[in-house]
Fold these 3 entries.
Entry 1:
Amino acid sequence: MTLPLPALGSRPHEEVMVTHYDLLDSMQEPFPDMLELQADESLVNAFKRSGIQDAAMLEYLATSNIGRALSRPGKTSHVLFLNMDRNMEVHSVLLPQPEANRGLVVQRDADMHFVQRAVLIPFEHRTSLANGVVQTNLFDALDAEGLPDEFAPALVEVFAKRLDAHNALHKGDRFTFVYDATYYNGTPLGNGKIQAAELVVGGKHYIAARYGVGDNEGFYTPAGENLDRGMLRCPVEYSRISSGFSNAREHPLFGDIRQHTGVDFAAPEGSRVHATDAGVVEFVGAQTGYGNFIILSHGKGISTAYGHLSDFAAGLKRGMRVQQNQVIGFVGQTGWATGPHLHYEYRINGQFIDPETLPPPPAPMLKGRQYNAFRTQANEVLAQLAHNQSRIGALDD
């Protein structure tokens, strides 16, 4: 379905509901040139950097819905495919939209007006394997392999109920994961979900594969154990443990020896603090020493506490029920704190427990037909992990 749009210089076009898309045939309608917009790069700078001399096309793209799509937050880069002549004048532009399995084409018509249409694109979807060895931290290890930082939180989330991967990974530990990647005419357009992952932490192997659809999707061990059970191991993203649980520690402000009743996670001020499990707000307010402080009750005598916050999540109040991973506050240094960090406590019937020593709860297992369906779906990606591990093992011998 062709969607004629106003000529350049007329008022911005209105959104049009599309009910049919033509299938893009790259043989009949080739786009041999590619323009990649880097993170936060404008169309103007991208055109200038690439030497494209086409002010009319640039102005149209910048003021159309393509321009709005390129400026939408949440993506690190965008790729445009172009059909240009030797004078660097652009005859047509393709903006792929892999998440919707379609794209937008802009081209000049016979009257030199711009015409836009939506098309279905025969994207190629592949699984790719990534691996690396940690030298300092997960972000640096990803960078060393040329992998985007967006994989760090995704990888941590896979095992979030079993270990705090940000802080657990140390020099010599390894990661491997299989992920979706989308291509058009051999050009990578973007990365999708992690389908399977393995962490080797202190010689111990953690393996998981994705299974299910929609809200029922989750990660399972090869034996069919559900990894989506239990408390989050870390309430703050991109943090490090600056002080662990201790029965006898020199207080950083007062210099005396006293119990450190929780774990301190150092993180930039304003970092989001998440509820490690669903619960009810038992206390929210200021408390001596703790500064801005939250206590969540999780039932069966279990509670968690979050101290030194710079602020609370909007609307948070006593008696409110919160969900696991919900943002409840923000890292600060209120109360007795020498720098921005979160003081996190785990309590059972009022007794302080080291949250790092908590064993994972018993998890339900996939059985029978469900387990067979899981193995059928996950066998290929698990085999990729196993093959990679065997190869690394052979190199180590």
Note: The two ends are 60 Å apart (CA to CA).
Entry 2:
Amino acid sequence: MAKTKVVIVGASHGGHQSILELLQRYTDVEITMFEAGDFVSFMSCGMQLYLENSVTDVTDVRNFEPRQFTKQGVHILNNHEVTKINADDKTVTVKDTRTAKTEEVAYDKLILSSGVVPKELPVPGKDLENVYLMRGYDWATNIKQKLEDPAVKNITVIGAGYIGIEAAEASRKAGKNVTLLDVIPRPLGTYLDPEMTSILEKELKTQGVNVVMNAKITAFTGTNKVAAVKTENGEYPSDLVIQAAGIKPNTAWLKGTVALDDHGFIKTDEYLRTNLSDVYALGDATLAHSVAANAQIPIALATVARREARYLVQHLFDKKPARPFKGVVGSSALSVFDYHFATAGLNQTTAKRVGLDIKTSFYRDNLRPQYVPTNKGNVPVFVKLAFEPLSHRIVGGAVLSKYDITAQGNVIALAIQQHLRLEELAEADFFFQPGFDRQWSLLNLAAQHALGENPF
């Protein structure tokens, strides 16, 4: 009896998890994965560690090596770009990017994990030498060479989100003069509310980063090689420009075949099915169901893609799954020099985008009891909670400190996922040990503060 043909497009987190789930759950499937790039499964989220010489080798910064699965019978083809879905025939058109030859490959089930591509600024000079992007194996190795080049003195990073902050920090640690530009008013302003971004902006400046917000870039200037970044309010000398100005779904090839929204994200139903029979989609190129917002929104995280893949493969052969995908919270963390933060769910910016009315509370305290001096680790800690005004349902939150309390972000994520209210978080039973925390846990105290209770 012929095996069921499962074709996977894309070798990042969603594709990787799909293979793992298929191999674990089924024995009668033939799995083929196509990856357009040469290097399979590079983890761009590990790029900063590589740039700072904190990994074993650049070739290890990946989800998997193809041979891990090929020896189990999985067909993994790099340098193979899927260019078209032929739904009536249940085939995909695949181009070998080295030879330009194409072939039709049949599928019974097709999983799209095509991911995203970085945005390039549409300004004059974008094709000059030394104007780089911050995504993928090739760009990682190119940037590393420049960080080690003593002739490169001035680096301009465009984009003050996670990727831009990582690029700026790695560049400063390499001894470069760094300017961070973004059109938004606050660094990390999409991820954190003003109370926390003000702390981190000060840290960036203390560490020597020239932070320029509300900057509208008009051109990259230079002859052959970039020499400066021009904005409406001035120019910034640049031997290297690293663009980290956002991402867009890698779905142009699906237009007219798979239903997309106005921004190019693949439309899926509550079972992660597209408009085409036996064609499914997951990961960054789709809109994820947000538990906090109770709506589909962009959440470009590895954790989201992996949870979607786990659900999808579990129900891949169900005519109609018994339950829909339950959704995700959207949790992430980042270090900004000496500070560490974690965030989960919604904040003021994202809640406004989805039209959800929220209230927020900002809480500041010290990590341990008052009798522990600051030079013994009793550092300031900060918590932001977002909640619905009437029900007090927790829909978002963030923690920040120079001490690594990012694991508390996981507690906030669980509170959001389980629809906890402030009252329940205020009384949740956590441990106390003065070498670690207060008599009431930090999140207990933050919830009590949000409820207007007297300080402990």
Note: Residues 13 and 302 are 6 Å apart (CA to CA).
Entry 3:
Amino acid sequence: MTKVTALPDQTDIEVGADETLLEAALRSGVPFAHACGGRAKCSTCRVWVLDGLEACPHRNANETSMADRLRLADEVRLACQLRPQGELRVRRLVLDETDLMMTSQLCDSAATRSGESKRVAIFFSDIVGFTSLSERLSPYDVMYLLNRYFAQVGEIIEQNDGFIDNFIGDGLMAIFGVDDQPDAPLRAVNAALQTLATVDRLKPFFASMYGIDFDIRIGLNYGEAVIGTLGFVGHERLTAIGDVVNLASRVEAANKDAGTRLLISEALHDQIADKVEVADYVRVRLRGTGERTSLFEVIGLKPEIDAELNARHPRETVRHAGRRWVRAFAEDELQPHERRILTFEDFDIVVVRGPDTYCAFNNACPHLHLPLYERRNAAEVETLNLPHTGSTITSDLGLVCRWHQSCFDLLTGEVRNWAKLQPDGTSPGFEFVGDISKNRTSLTVYPCRTQDGYVWIGLE
């Protein structure tokens, strides 16, 4: 028999040679949680080995799978799989029903990570003068503006292997390095630069829609944080906690006095100093700190780093019948009545699969020059709470514009039915664009063909 002392019960458990710690504990009347019945499916029997870790055999396959999934430290073991080979002192980590719900992996809302210390890059952004902007706009317009901005920035964060921690009003926090990516600091800077570029592209849109000057500020920091799942049952989220987070927020706030858009901390700069272009640096005393620190204004990546990190793989092209054709995707990747948006350097193309043909067209209204479709698919629009105001496609391959309800023929681009405009020729809600009644410009369409199982689009 092997003695195991269990805390907080202050009870000694005698474990037989063929018993697991869970089996012995239950036999001894110690109330170990075991939601899955001891099959390493829930993790609720987990214990912290305080003394005697060397007497614990290596994890078996079942325990290893759960430990890897939850990033459990070596000292955290599943009692249902642990067969101690010497004396131990352990602490039960699941003590009541609340703990049981929080730690069980048997439901979809369960936490997915226990706390662990990691070196990560923290990204904070904030909209300049958001309070005054929100006072000028209707509640609907405020939410639309935020969701449109967050939708595009979120895509950038994910493309750079970042994780969006939280949306805080008009602010956004993201974490880079959750999965120990070695280039997390560089990815964070790349995401910040791409975010600023995206905002610059959004500015004319927001200026024309709402008459506002839209801009953001970003602060980045690098250091050690506790990464784990936080929240009450069913509403957990992965987050980072620690001084590195607080400092990143203060770095972002320092942009206001410095007159900058992107500042990074000295700790992060030390990681990527030879990979970025720095315009200037400032010496500041951040709120809540007693010492002055250096912050660096980053304006870009070194050309060779940018080329390596953001390399675009060109689509295959061929010359056929006097036209340049670009291979879009495999035929079976798009089902009937589905659509896909392809991004090119200067424009986006929407490809729609009809009952027996494919249609492709420029993703821009030819009159208002606004996107006919958001890049996100329907499920993502639902998740992000974006307005459901996308253009619609009729059964006979007509496209009804989301902005002024004109209908275009997707095979020819010609106007089938013209918009119902106001007496002065303006579209409701877009009076600032002026009279468009005589501007019956056709939709730009591109020929499509299939060959060898792929869809090809003719660009020239």
Note: The first strand starts at residue 2 and ends at 7.
